Amino acid sequence: QVQLVESGGGLVQAGESLRLSCAASGLNFKITPMKWYREAPGQQREWVATIDASGRSEYAERVKGRFTTSRNWPRSTMYLQMNSLEPEDTGVYYCNAYWRGDWWGRGTQVTVSS
Questions:
Q1: What does the pLDDT average to over 1-9?
Q2: Which residue among 25, 56, 69, 71 is the one 20 to 30 A from 81 at the CA level?
Q3: SS3 for the chain, per residue?
Q4: Percentage of the chain with pLDDT > 90?
């Protein structure tokens, strides 16, 4: 059974930073691409970033240059460093992995006040 557990969310002011974590278990983390999504109130869930097994990352235009994703294989953990946060970044952030099925964490709330 794959488990993805997000942490690190919180309430910050615009311009501040947060680092989210996603602890993964039950999959071969070393070879599995990982993704971040977010869901703002009243909006559809949107893709934020992908990091492949080699550490190459892709980002949505709205976060490019402000967010950085990374992964630590021995710890089976993915990170999302979020800088220069904006109120529009408010939402629940989810970790996603496709390993013999599509798996999601329960999310962590990020709230950015203006």
A1: 97
A2: 25
A3: CCEEEEECCEEEECCCCEEEEEEEECCCHHHCCEEEEEECCCCCCEEEEEECCCCCEEECCCCCCCEEEEEECCCCEEEEEECCCCHHHCEEEEEEEECCCEEECCCEEEEEEC
A4: 99
Residue type at 1?
Answer: Q
Angstrom distance (rounded) from CA 47 to CA 1 = 24
CB 60 within 8 A of CB 75: no
For residue range 11-21, what is the model confidence (pLDDT) as tens digits?
999 999 999 99
Can you tell me which residue has the tokens 């680092």? Answer: 19
Q: Cβ-count burial of 28 within 10 angstroms (0-12 exposed, 13-18 middle, 19+ buried)? A: exposed
